[in-house]
Write a structure and sequence with these properties.
Blueprint: H1 6-29, H2 31-51, H3 55-58, H4 67-80, E1 81-95, E2 98-99, E3 102-103, E4 106-107, E5 113-124, E6 131-142, E7 145-149, H5 153-156
Antiparallel strand pairs: 1-2, 1-5, 3-4, 5-6, 6-7
C-alpha cells in the first residue's frame, strides 16, 4: 500500500482547516446565532458583576425602566447578601410570549424573552445561616440589547 507523501498530508490538513474555518465563520455571521451569543454573554457578565457586588457596573444590563429601583436597592444587597455559589439550572426562551421551540441548535429564531433559573447559596444578614434560593431572572431584548428585569426582593427575604 502506498503511503501519502508529507506534502499531500499537509495539503489535506490545510484544506480541512480552511474548510472548518469557513464553516465556523459562516455560522458566526448568522444574526440568530449572534442573538443567542449576546444573551449568553449578557447573562454571564451581569451575574459575575452582580455576585461580585459591582452593582453600579452590572446596572448597564438592567432594563432602563427598572434601573433606578435597582440602584436604590443595591446598597442593601451589598451590605446584607453574601454569595457563596450560583448555578444556572434552566433557561426558557419565549417568542411573542409563547414558549419558543428549542432544538439541539438552540431556540427558534425570533425569541425576545428568556427566563433564567438560578440556584444561589447565600447568607443574608442578620442571619448567618447559609440558605439556598432559586431565583428566576427575566431577560428581554430591548433595542437590540439583552437586559434584565431584576427582582432583588426575592434575595433579601
Amino acid at each position: 500500500m502506498l503511503k501519502p507523501s508529507l506534502q499531500t498530508l499537509l495539503t489535506r490538513r490545510v484544506f480541512f482547516f480552511f474548510l472548518l474555518l469557513t464553516f465556523v465563520s459562516c455560522h458566526t455571521l448568522d444574526p440568530h446565532y449572534k442573538t443567542q451569543e449576546n444573551l449568553d454573554l449578557s447573562i454571564e457578565a451581569f451575574n459575575f458583576e452582580f455576585e461580585s457586588k459591582a452593582l453600579e457596573s452590572s446596572a448597564r444590563f438592567v432594563h432602563p425602566s427598572f434601573r433606578s429601583k435597582y440602584m436604590a436597592k443595591s446598597l442593601e444587597i451589598i451590605q446584607r447578601v453574601t454569595f457563596f455559589e450560583a448555578t444556572i439550572l434552566d433557561i426558557k426562551f419565549f417568542k411573542n410570549e409563547i414558549p419558543a421551540v428549542t432544538t439541539p441548535k438552540g431556540p427558534e429564531e425570533g425569541f425576545t424573552r428568556t427566563i433564567v433559573t438560578i440556584r444561589y447559596q447565600v447568607a443574608v444578614l442578620p442571619s448567618t445561616k447559609l440558605k439556598t434560593l432559586t431565583i428566576e431572572q427575566e431577560w428581554v431584548l430591548h433595542r437590540g440589547q439583552w437586559v434584565i428585569i431584576p427582582d432583588l426582593n426575592s434575595l433579601l427575604e
